[in-house]
Amino acid sequence: MAAPKKSVAKETAQENAYLSPPEFSRQQELAALRDMLLIRRFEEKAGQLYGMGAIGGFCHLYIGQEAVVVGMQMALKQGDQVITGYRDHGHMLACGMDAKGVMAELTGRHGGYSKGKGGSMHMFSKEKNFYGGHGIVGAQVSLGTGLAFANRYRGNDFVSLAYFGDGASNQGQVYESFNMAELWKLPVVYVIENNRYAMGTSVTRSSAQTDFSRRGISFNIPGKQVDGMDVRAVKAAGDEAVAWCRAGNGPYILEMQTYRYRGHSMSDPAKYRTREEVEKVRHDQDPIEQVRNRLLAARVSEQELKAIDAEVREIVNNAADFAQRDPEPDASELYTDVYR
Q: CB of 53 within 8 A of CB of 214?
């Protein structure tokens, strides 16, 4: 008797050991470096403005996780959609949204992407196919599945990326979305950004199954663990997942093993982990330094790399200046863009 055929999900779940990622061209490395630096410098500036009181409410920084969104964006084409949770500034910038508009929204100014009415967690750009920024934990997973349903209904070959974290992975709506996506073979990549601590609790204490790439096995959804600190590995996994979805095979799960250097939000002192742990990840795995070191080894000059950083800093400084000078929205804006 022939051995029973394994499901795709079981096969792929067993292939989670990190492999050497494909090498990037010089141009790809430089582009990845610039995009990750833009996110890093933007978030550093946002942290400064928050400390000064220029940004109110919640503010969740993406520092340390830059390789995930930059690598995934490199795997997309025009028309593909992105949706995420509240740690969202990096996703906006990677999608090509203007740093001035993002920073102005953080400071509650009229020139922000939501006219100063949404703040950090509620920004959107139809032009860039970015569908938020969502403050409710896990809400974006079902919405991202809905985007994929719309693509399937319209008969196009676009793919939606639904980003969420290890904390949101235990939400019930996540599994309802998995079930529907597989039943209807929807073109959605579920990108789980596992930064190990959710809101402040280690995954080993909060999740019975800590291999998040296996979360789709009961739905026969393939999954893969990825070194989310290496932009090359992210891009390679993104290419595979997006191609799977575009071919009509249904959803795909990517667990990005990454790390946030700051607390869950700006109000979080992050006492649940040691300073030594954070410094070790910074020293050994920092996504930007990995690219920088490869470029230096490829004989790209230190001056050229400094010039990229200087260009990025100028963009961020100009965005911060704009965000503090731009007027606040008029009181009449309270009554616009509201459904009655």
A: no
